[in-house]
Amino acid sequence: MKIGLGTVQFGLDYGISNSNGKTPPDEVGAILKLAVEKGVRVIDTARLYGESEDVLGSSLPDNHAFDLVTKTVSLRRETISKEDVEAFREGFHVSLEKLEQPQIFGLLAHHADDVLAPGGARLFEVMQDFRSAGLVRKIGASIYDGTQIDFLLDRFDIDLVQLPLNVFDQRLIAGGHLDKLKARGVEIHVRSAFLQGAVFMRPGALPPKLAGLRPALELFHKAVDDCRLSPAALALSFLLGNPHVDSVVCGVNNIRQFHELCTAAEEGNVADKELFDKFAVNDPKLVNPVNW
Hints:
The protein has helices at residues 8-11, 25-38, 52-59, 82-99, 112-116, 121-132, 146-155, 171-174, 177-183, 214-227, 231-240, 255-267, 273-277, 284-287, and strands at residues 3-6, 42-44, 67-71, 104-109, 136-142, 160-164, 187-191, 247-251. With 292 residues, the chain is an alpha/beta fold. An 8-stranded parallel beta barrel has the order 1-2-3-4-5-6-7-8, surrounded by 5 helices.
């Protein structure tokens, strides 16, 4: 299954619709058990996700076959110093300890601008050292726009990216960036599959600052009705049917949500490019939640 499991809710009280706080450890265990049954491959976490790495470390089944991906400490410096490089290096070793793993599948720079900043090449060299030592199989960055992708591809030998993509935010398809990444053999993990829940909203309930999204949302809900699918199933169809997308990372708060997510993924089998093209908005003010 191309659905990946996001785990921020395992370590933080995260999400505007989350009224129950962090996912309890026994619920995490049940989610991971179902993930095994459903053939989920990717589990995504990060140093910034509170206790998520600790919870995973104590909950993962023995001899699991998951591809674990974590993200580095966040530096957000104008210039990367020697001390920053050491903190970056140490942060990864702490992640391995918390996850209770001798090695993991993927390591992403949590903020691509860290490795793109002056001195940031030293951070990427550290990641390459981890890869060479067999501590991680693939390295890369979590990115937000095509400019970051262009800079990364020009400067570094990356294997993996995580990026935003959904029925309304198709910028990285329109700009040819998914094609560029695949031409370089980069594995693509997608986040923001539901645009922070926008796909579930009724058009009339959008806040004024997102009024520009209304025409596309109306078309989307008409298609939902015509296809007799849930909004989640249609939104996932767009992503799961894209041959460039290797994993769609979605976070859940509980086992019920994970069951619903898996059901939507299994039901969503719409492959109609012309239909999905109609939903594209691609205005950063509307599809990048940072601008909300």
